[in-house]
Amino acid sequence: MPIILRCHPGVGPAVEGVALVARDNFSARYDLDRKKGVFSRPSHILAGQSYNNRILVLDTAKGGVATAWMLHEMKARGIVPLAFVFNRVNPILAQGAAFGAVTLVDRFDGDVTEMIRTGDRLRIDPAVGVVAIVDRDR
Amino acid sequence: MRLNDEERAMLAGESGEPRRWAIAHQIAIGEFFDAPDLVPVSQAHIMADTESLGEAGVEFLERLAALPDGERRVRVPTLTDPRGLDFSVYKRLGHSEAMAALEARTIAALKSFGVLMTDTCINYQTIMPFVRGEHLAMGDTGVVIYSNSVFGARSNFEGGPSALAAGLTGRTPRYGYHLDEFRRATRRFRLAAAPCNLAEWGALGGIVGRACGSYWEVPLIEGIEIVPGSDALKHFGAALASYGSVALFHMPGITAEEAVLADPAIPGIAIGRADIDAFLASYAAPGDAVDVVVFAAPQLSLVEMAGVADALDGRRVNPRTTLLVATSPEIKHAADRMGLTQRIEAAGGVVAAGLCFYQSYAGELAEANGWRRLVTNSAKLVNIIGGYGYRPTLMSLENCIEAAVTGRM
């Protein structure tokens, strides 16, 4: 039986992929080398790690408005996270995910960065607000 | 979400494809944030720098811009945030011809929507101040936090696509800072030291922002004995929004709204001189060679431009160091007319209009010019620029000028 986590309904398509988890925040402008597809901000917990095709499980969105355009641009180049699973996002990440058709969910019961581990395989259904950890038993 | 007849018609495509796309996007965002309906806005403000847009974003704008004039024109005054480059200085700064070409395409597309090309992140100082209670769709975090806090206007952070959508429909989803219940103070800070300059006001914003750490937190700052001016609140708010993603703050007796505490038992956090000094010291690099000194983020007011010109009088920027000053087109015109631009450039500085540095291919400029050590009096810029490969230091305007002249910290 997969572990089922419920959240607020999100945006973007249903997807399945591998989680990259950190108790840290996210901004496409502040934190990423978008050409190389890695976290580039030295102080970020995930500095140096690839985000491409990963489901990023983080605390919140931060910083400026650039992410709203950048996810669309990153998706067009094919170097983009598969999905965002956050405790709570700001409007910019929601707007960027909606515009770029990148999957995003937030608002769980509890700290999602503690409930999901790096390497977990997740299935996300944003229309109903469900994240399933498919390769780990309760 | 509740839609009225006009909104349903837009969604059905009866007002053309741009407005259909716009309202569909707004409904998706509104449902994500449980907005009950859409609220009319008096202005929109679009962040659309080409570094963020990329080829894909420019093509998106061009597709909508190619549709019939009556379908694509914005319905409320819609301004622009800074551009990706300034055509009058881009070669000196190391921008490429490809960047300039993409910028020209973006400008052409934005103009076809009827957008006013203000290219500024200080529209609240230079274009039109807002009115308490005015609903807006502002597309720059510094603009949003200043407008919400100092004027008591009502805006969420509206990214480029959402701000364009708001311009096209004349409304925005009613959630977050459009609603009274989100504007109550959730955090409380007591200031026990007076910031001495704009860099220290930015440092204070950074300290409060780090402590808040969420768009949904609203800090109340007490203990401010001398009323800060517009530039001080500009740097404070921009840093607070940058470090904390915060969109509204209250300073009793100074900001527009009477602060209501979400919970009277919220404990107060003291911020003293040692905290401000430690924040500045965390970015210090004494003795290092300085590659570039940047005055930007937010763009400089006329008063700040005069401050830079005064500090440079009789001095000369070190040949190994670049001094860049970014302001809005309106302030650049005024600075030209008053001789400030000439004084800064005569000392070896570069004055750019309509850009704000970090939105202007900062990573590519670092590579093109061999820049790494950056000095600025903007805490916001210090927070942003590390991800682009820079090592930033935060200092007062006077110490920034000293670094530019000597080429060292």
Notes on the structure:
The complex is a heterodimer of chains A (about 140) and B (about 400). Chain A is an alpha/beta fold. Chain A has a single domain (about 1-135), classed as Glucose Oxidase, domain 1, CATH 3.50.30. Chain A contains 4 helices and 9 strands. Chain A has a 7-stranded mixed beta barrel. Chain A has a two-stranded antiparallel ribbon with strand order 3-4. In chain A, helix 2 (about 65-75) links the parallel strand 5 and strand 6. Chain A is globular. In chain A, about 55% of the residues are buried. The model of chain A has no long low-confidence stretch (mean pLDDT about 95). With about 400 residues, chain B is α/β, with parallel strands linked by helices. Chain B is built from 18 helices and 12 strands. Chain B has helices spanning about 5-10, 15-30, 50-65, 70, 90-95, 95-110, 125, 140-150, 160-170, 200-210, 230-245, 275-280, 300-310, 330-335, 340-345, 360-370, 380-385, 395-405, and strands at about 40, 45, 80, 170-175, 185-190, 220, 270, 290-300, 320-325, 350-355, 375, 390-395. Chain B has a 5-stranded parallel sheet with strand order 10-9-8-11-12, with helices on both faces. The longest helix of chain B is centred in the first third of the chain and has 16 residues, at about 15-30. In chain B, about 55% of the residues are buried. At the A-B interface, strand 1, helix 1, strand 3, helix 2 and helix 3 of A face helix 2, helix 3, helix 9 and helix 11 of B.
